[in-house]
Amino acid sequence: MADPAAVPVQQPLSPAREIPVFEFTKRKRWADLLITELNDTVIFVLSETCQVWYCGNAVTELLGWRDDELVDADLIDLMNADDRGNFRAAFTESVRSKTEMLAYARLQCKNEFNVSRDYTSAPKEVLFEIRGRPHHLPDTDEFKCYFAMAQPYPSRNTAMLNTFLELKMEHERLQQRIVQLRAQSQALEGSTDGFFSTSDNFGATEAARTGYDVGAVPDGEDDGPRKKVKRLAAEQHVCVTCGRTDSPEWRKGPLGPKTLCNACGLRWAKKARKTGDEGEGDAGQNGPSTVF
Questions:
Q1: pLDDT: which is higher, 21 or 191
Q2: Lowest mean pLDDT segment, chosen from 63-77, 90-104, 109-123, 256-270
Q3: Angle value at C-alpha 63, between 58 and 65, nearest 5 degrees
Q4: Taking the domains of the chain in order of start, what are their residue ranges?
Q5: Tell me, what DSSP letter sits at residue 17?
Q6: 147 forms bridges with which residues in the sheet?
Q7: Is the pTM of this model over 0.85?
Q8: Are 146 and 121 contacting, i.e. CB atoms less than 8 angstroms apart?
Q9: Residue 261 CB: number of other CB atoms within 10 A?
Q10: Which residues does 130 contact at the CB level (< 8 Å), separation at least 6?
Q11: 23-153 homologous superfamily
Q12: What is the dihedral of CA 4, 7, 8, 10, to 10 degrees?
C-alpha cells in the first residue's frame, strides 16, 4: 500500500485573470445614443391607431423627412395607396393578438420625385420592411404603445448586388444588339455588292440583246482623250536617273523612250545636243579641206 505521504498533493488552480468587459449600458444616456446612432433603421413609436408618437433621426437620411414633420401624423398616410390596406390589416391584427408584425410598404420621399411617361411627377417611394410589436402593461394588459422598426428592403448590400446583376444583364443585351447590327450590316453589304455586279453585267446583257456594245469606242475615236487617259493610268514609268514615278511627261533617255522624267529628259537632251555639236565641230576642224 502506498504511503499517503508520498502522494503529491494537487495544488488548486489559480483562477484565470478575467478581462474587464466594457458594458455599453454603463455609459451615460446609453439608450439615447443607441437610438440616435442608428442610421439605416427608422424607429417608430405608434399609437393604437397608427399615429406617430416618436420617429428616429434616420428618417431624414433615408426619406428626407424631419422627425418633427412626422410626429402626430398618421404613418399610413406616408405609404403608397396600394399598400395601406394590407398594412392596416396587419397592424390591427398584431395589436389584437399581441404578436409580432412583419409587413412591407412603400414610403414616400420628401424632396425626390419621379417623372412618368405622361410627364406627371410623383414622389419617389422606397420599399421598407417594417417589423413591430405591441407593448402592454403586464398587470392590467393595457395597451401602451407600439414599437416598430423600418429598414429599406432590400438592404444596401443586396441593392448593390441587384445593381450589378442589372448592369450585367444590360451588358448581355447590348452584346446581342451588336451581333444583330453586325448581321444587318453584312446583309446590307451583300445586297450592295449584288447591285453593283448587276450593274456591271448590264452592258454585256444589253450588247447581247441589241448587238451594240455599250462600252465600245467608235473607230474614229481611238486616239481621243478618253483612251489616252486610260492608257496613261495603266502605264507605270520610273525615271532611271532620279527614281521618280510621277511626271507630267516622260522623255527619251539613254535606255530608250520614256525612261526619263521631264526634267531629267530635258537635261539629257540638252547634254546630248551639246555633245553632238562639239563632235561636229571637231570633225570640221580635223577633216580634209577642198580648195576650188
A1: 191
A2: 109-123
A3: 80
A4: 23-153, 236-275
A5: P
A6: 45, 133
A7: no
A8: no
A9: 25
A10: 87, 101, 102, 103, 104, 105, 148, 149, 150
A11: PAS domain (3.30.450.20)
A12: -80
Measured CA to CA, the distance from residue 92 to residue 50 in angstroms comes to 9
Predicted pLDDT at 144: 92
Separation of alpha carbons 249 and 72, rounded Å: 101
The residue with cell 468587459 is 21
Pick the CATH number of 236-275 from 1.10.3470, 2.40.50, 3.10.20, 3.30.50: 3.30.50
236, 245 in Cβ contact below 8 A? Answer: yes
pLDDT tier at 247, thresholds 50, 70, 90 = confident
C-alpha separations of 104 from 4, 39, 97, 116 in Å? 75, 19, 19, 24
